[in-house]
Amino acid sequence: MTYPTTTQPSASRTSLFRETRRYALFVLLALMVVGFWYAQPAFIRSTNLFSILQAVSVVAILGVGVSITMAADGFDLSVGSIAASSVMAASYAMVVWQLDAAQTIVLVLLMGAFIGLVNGLLIVRVGVPDLLATLATMFLLAGLQLIPTGGRSITAGMVLPDGSSVPGAYDPAFLILGRSRLFDTIPLSVVVMAIVAVLAWFLMERTRWGRVFYAIGGNETAAHLAGAATKRYRLWAYILSGTLASLGGLIVASRVGRGDVSAGNSLLLDAVAASLIGYAVLDKRRPHVIGTVVGAIFVGVLLNGLTMLNAPYYTQDFVKGVVLVGALALTFGLGKKR
Amino acid sequence: MPPAPSAIAVSVNGIEKSFGPTRALAGADLAVAPGEVVALMGANGAGKSTLVKILSGSYTPDAGTITLGGNIVTFASPSAAKAAGIATVHQATDQAGAAGLTVAENLLLDELCGRSGHFLVSAASIRRRARAVAALIDLDLPLDRDFIDLRPAERQLIAIARAVAAKASVLILDEPTSSLSTTEAERLFAIIRRLRAGGMAILYISHRLGDLAAIADRAVVMRGGRIVGAFTRPIDFPAAVAAMIGRTLEAATHDSKASTAPIIASIRRARLVAGAEPFDLDLRSGEVVAITGTLGSGKSRLLRALFGLETLAQGGFVLDGKPWLSSGPAQSIESGVFMVAEDRWQSSLLPPEVPGASIAGTIALPHLKRWFPSGLLRTARERKVAADAISRLGIKARGPDDTLDELSGGNQQKVVLARWQAAPCRLLLLDEPFQGVDVGARADLIAAIRNSQSGSATLIATSDTEEALEAADRILVMRNHTLYEAGDGHGSLTDQIGKVESDKAGDNR
């Protein structure tokens, strides 16, 4: 395990190459914006740009959770299901239990944290590998969310499996989260995304707790021998991830205004893709918050622009795949130290 | 019969290799004859690793030639070098085999992965053929053990057995004894002598002078990417070391200090494992105590028990007059009991892409809570501690932000030591602290360990008696999970350790 001292990359050519790779995704993003603007002038309107951000806000929030678990050498496959369950839980709370917006939000966030805790306990205490544990929770939740309503979407006035008609409806205050705009321009969900991103960035990059999360991901034995409570940290990573996923679910619920059983179908893969594309941002080669948000925005801009140019919707997953492959190749393949 | 010494099995001429502006090799010439063991000596960064990687096909040289058996050859890949008959046993033992496969399967790995292997393999035939490979070097490992459960030394033996089984004409051993105990090293030397008698050309890279004295026919010294000296038997090691590090090295001898200093930590009637003899040990303030002993004798276990990673079968510890039973690393570190575990890449260091993998971050990791109670990192603080450590320990680095993979082994180990010297210490536990560290850096490390010994005790576990002699005031030998005093007179110490070791051979298995 010795690394020769002779491989220090310090040539100016190497550093130029490194700098290029650091900002490659930003440069591509700028080129893309200019390109779409040229092809379709309506693209650059602030309403469109904010609608892109609004569209990616949920994916970005989920992606931040995923990247926190990945930083601690874990993986949360259940974020999509947690978000979807949160949509159903929020609707059920308001429509069936007639809770108000504040109660619903607290309840759903607690539910997300609890699911994260269960994930964490399965992984840390029981010893189930992270991918398998969260895969199991993913299935469990995907099924569980259908049971209370007999597999139907939740709307005001719907009929429950026991034949009774539901008494409540969505609290109008709840819809503010997904539908209102700050100063009539910035969608509230974008503000929420920004707050989550700043807080998570601060936690992961500027505090000792973030340092320990990454240390555990880099070498768990070393972190443990250095006195870190590695199990507690890993538990917290899943709790944070679960809570953020349920926050994403709340935004979806308040945007669609009903408990849609098919909500959040593609959220997991989009969130994971955003985190992985983020590896290439600033050439960090690791999960990080800024990268995840930029990754989500990158995909959002690309899809929005292509849609404006009348690319058919079914090409979307293909486009995401191409971006992901390119970003991962950029991160891991090019510029390997040799 | 050994062939004529004029014949050359492998040689390199005028090899050059640069990485960016760094010139790793600046025209290296080296030749090894069949039936000859050539020791390649050099401080970290001298170019040994690069030369080995060129010979083993991992790197292609910028200039110069490799001649193998009279023909000029170029290797496109490590497997090409292997096919041509150059087998390399690397220091990194986790690459010596495949985890998840048994010892038997690993011994036959080249055959199983090669094209000539049989399509169908039965467990019985694997065991039979693996036994034959193991017999080549008298390897007595359980054949059905998983590779992942093997200790570094055992993994290395598998790598050597594989190289021998591949009928290589040239064998390169990179730091082969760095994780072996004395007995195992002796066994390795016996194997090397046998291979030498069989006409194999052996290039032996080691920091350990004791090894080289025992085995080398010729020593070649590298510095700054060139060969700066060659010494034939009898090898003048002081001169070789001087050529290697560019200065002379004082032999470290320590007066056994008056043992009146207050006792910091004690071990009372401790049984490491059920059935082992109980033992006592007092560690005094300012004292450096070394425990030597073979692999698996219980040295690491004792250190790990003190650090709270394992429990004693019986008995207990006393720290500063109070009973000491740690629940784990966090509590130990809080109480000033620090441990540098063996294998720094596995136990202490972070991969370079992770934040906190810099020298500053590596030193700060265990101290984050105390240094930044609010949680907010102030990098100025950790960078200052790192800058102090760099100048105090003579760490060769550009600055506190260098990541550890950019440093040589000795400098990496200095960073790990600096980590634990960055906080007030009661008891410092060092498990094989000189693994993969050259003589010059080892002297620096020992000086740093000894100079910081005001008011704390140090316990070193090492399987190398030479290291123990250099570093410690007092040396104990561990055998069958029990400690024995090895006396204090330096002259007789090696003899006494040898005696305890040979006793072990008598009554253990």
Structure description:
The complex is a heterodimer of chains A (338) and B (509). Chain A has 338 residues and is mainly α. Chain A has one domain (22-333): ABC transporter involved in vitamin B12 uptake, BtuC (Orthogonal Bundle), CATH 1.10.3470. Helices cover 69% and strands 1% of the residues of chain A. Chain A is built from 14 helices and 2 strands. In chain A, helix 4 packs across helix 12, helix 5 (101-126) packs antiparallel against helix 6 (130-144) and helix 8 packs across helix 9 (208-218). Mean pLDDT of chain A is 88; it is low at 1-11. By secondary structure, chain B is an alpha/beta fold. Chain B has 3 domains: 10-85 and 168-245, Rossmann fold (3-Layer(aba) Sandwich); 262-336 and 426-509, P-loop containing nucleotide triphosphate hydrolases (Rossmann fold, 3-Layer(aba) Sandwich); 346-423, no CATH class. Chain B contains 19 helices and 20 strands. Chain B has helices at 48-55, 78-84, 103-107, 109-113, 123-136, 152-165, 182-197, 209-215, 237-245, 299-307, 329-334, 344-347, 359-364, 368-371, 379-393, 409-421, 439-451, 465-471, 490-507; strands at residues 10-19, 22-32, 37-42, 63-68, 71-73, 86-89, 170-174, 201-205, 218-223, 226-232, 263-271, 279-284, 288-292, 314-319, 322-324, 337-340, 427-431, 457-461, 474-479, 482-485. Chain B has a 6-stranded mixed beta sheet, with helices on both faces. In chain B, strands 16-17-18-13-19-20 form a 6-stranded mixed beta sheet, sandwiched between helices. Chain B has a 4-stranded antiparallel beta sheet with strand order 2-1-4-5, with helices on one face. In chain B, a hairpin with a 2-residue loop joins strand 9 and strand 10. In chain B, helix 16 (409-421) packs parallel to helix 17 (439-451). The two termini of chain B are 35 Å apart. The chains are: A mainly alpha (338), B alpha/beta (509). At the A-B interface, helix 9 and helix 10 of A face helix 1, helix 11, helix 12 and helix 16 of B.
